[in-house]
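Help! Submission page says 'invalid entity' but I think these are all valid:
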Amino acid sequence: QITLKESGPTLVKPTQTLTLTCTFSGFSLSTSGVGVGWIRQPPGKALEWLALIYWDDDKRYSPSLKSRLTITKDTSKNQVVLTMTNMDPVDTATYYCAHSQGDDILTGYYNWFDPWGQGTLVTVSS
Amino acid sequence: QSVLTQPPSVSGAPGQRVTISCTGSSSNIGAGYDVHWYQQLPGTAPKLLIYGNSNRPSGVPDRFSGSKSGTSASLAISGLQAEDEADYYCQSYDSSLSGYVFGTGTKVTVL
């Protein structure tokens, strides 16, 4: 059974850096084709994909947020860390991590997200 | 900002069939990338409903079905039940953005 859980601060101040950790079990990030992604959802709004790290350490970022995001993995600890710099109140959202896989392990173009963690609400306010 | 457009809401009576559209472009759905669907019940994390355009994960009722044609995809829910009241999102890959994209989301209401 695959499970994921997000952890990190619930409140950050504007301009600060957010660091979120996704701790997972039931799979290894060294297995071909596997990835872990981060997705966020502002209150009452739609889902927004942020970043994904693959089994081979390839990384992809949302173009609109690429300059602010860094995703890393620690395979031995079964953790993926997302950092987002220069936080702003518009970044207030529930942040989810999710296991990802797809039908083309070489490109990742067909990946879906399943399952998801429970999410963590991050509020940006002074 | 999303490049995948969904109707904001759809509704139907119990037992009816409803469909949710997901309209993209030549850089995502039209380029041949798969469409996946998620169900988000109130206050919970999204759950995978359909992957690879039309495949149901184990445990998902066969009342849910997906299809894709051209630059669009659809999710159909037949035999609508009260427990289907939720938000639904489509997701694909976009070559222009070199990343994954979600739809704008659709709220399904059971009358």
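Support: the input was valid. A stray whitespace character was the problem, and the output above is from the cleaned input. The longest strand of chain B covers residues 86-94.
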